[in-house]
Amino acid sequence: MILSLIGGDLFSKERRIELFLSESLKDLKDDPLSKQILYATDTNIAIADKVMESCASVSMFSPEQAVVVRRAEALKAAD
After folding, report:
1. 75 vs 71, more confident
2. Is 3 inside a domain boundary?
3. Which among 25, 34, 42, 67 counts the fewest CB atoms within 10 Å?
C-alpha cells in the first residue's frame, strides 16, 4: 500500500502517519526494526533507489515493515 499525504497541515499528516503505522504494523508499531524512515532531502543517498531497495527487502527480525518517506515534496522527476 502506498499512502501519499499532501498539504501544509503537518499536525494532520503526522496523525495520519501514526494511524497508518498503527493499523498496518499493529503491535510492531514501536519496534524500530519494523519501519524505515527516509528523508527525500538526504543528499548522501539516491532516494529513489533506497526507497525501492527498502520496499523490496525483508527484515529478518520483523514480519512486517513500513517505509516512510519524509519531505517527499523535495523529490524531483530525475530522482
Report:
1. 71
2. no
3. 42
Inter-residue contact 24 to 64 (CB < 8 Å): yes
pTM: 0.75
- CA gap 24, 20 in Å, rounded: 6
- The burial of 35, by beta-carbon neighbours within 10 Å (0-12 exposed, 13-18 middle, 19 or more buried), is given as buried
Q: Is the pLDDT of residue 79 over 70?
A: no
- Report the pLDDT value the prediction gives residue 32, as an integer from 0 to 100: 84
Over 80: is that where the pLDDT of 40 sits?
yes
Q: Which residue has the cell 493499523?
A: 23
- Residue 69's domain spans which residues? 10-74
Give the separation between CA 41 and CA 5, rounded to whole angstroms.
Answer: 17
